[in-house]
Amino acid sequence: MKKIIAIATFATIGFAANAQNQSNQSSSASQTTNLVLSNAIEITFTGNSSATGADVTIPFTTVNDYANGVESDAQELKVRSNKNFSVAVKANNDEFSYTGNTTPAPEMPVEGVLAVKVTANGTGGDIAGSFSNYATLTSSNQNLLTGADRGGNQTFSVKYKATPGFAYPAGTYAVDVVYTATQE
């Protein structure tokens, strides 16, 4: 019996000594992760987070309004782009559409009547042309901002000024103003 206890004791001591001599083992695996990015750009109105802004109403109620023109409130737009960009502006038509009681419908041109100016610029870009003051809109794209910085919250604001004069009867005259953000 003493032999069995002695053998068991030596076996336990030998096993423990052998376990201490072995180092911890490890294994690893790796994998390449590829991000496939596309160019992305979006322009929206901040008031409703949509590409279609709320209607802008410019009321003419006095003779001085007709003589001097009327300004709108500021309209803020936001561009999100992963590349530098520019913004162009245009009217979607050469003339305003008319809703009212005059027949035939009067034809009011956009050019010379409706103007826009940039009132705030947080894009890091430059205000193009004469848009730091009121510049008349046309149905062709005109550069509004150039060299704007990429980013997720690049904002700018515009105001409209309408000066129709006294040549047009009462009614509602409407035209869409289109802003186009283009990556450079």
Outline: elongated
Provide the low-confidence segments as ranges.
Answer: none
Helicity level, as a percent range? 10-25%
Using the coordinates shown, work out and report the CATH topology.
Answer: Immunoglobulin-like
Helix-and-strand structural type: mainly beta
Distance between the termini: 92 Å
Count of DSSP helices? 2
The CATH class designation is Mainly Beta
| Total E-strand runs | 12
Biggest sheet features: 6 strands, antiparallel
The proportion of residues in beta strands is 35-45%
- What gyration radius follows from the Cα positions, in whole Å? 35 Å
Give average pLDDT, whole number: 91
Q: What pattern of helices and strands is seen along the backbone?
A: HEHEEEEEEEEEEE
Structure description:
This protein is mainly beta and 184 residues long. The protein has a single domain (41-183), classed as Immunoglobulin-like. Helices cover 14% and strands 35% of the residues. The longest helix has 20 residues, at 2-21.
Short description:
It contains 2 helices and 12 strands. It has 184 residues and is mainly beta.
Task: Annotate the secondary structure layout.
Blueprint lengths: L1 H20 L19 E5 L17 H6 L1 E2 L3 E7 L3 E7 L5 E3 L14 E8 L4 E2 L7 E2 L5 E7 L2 E12 L9 E3 L2 E7 L1
Antiparallel strand pairs: 1-3, 2-10, 3-10, 4-9, 4-12, 5-11, 6-8, 6-10, 7-9
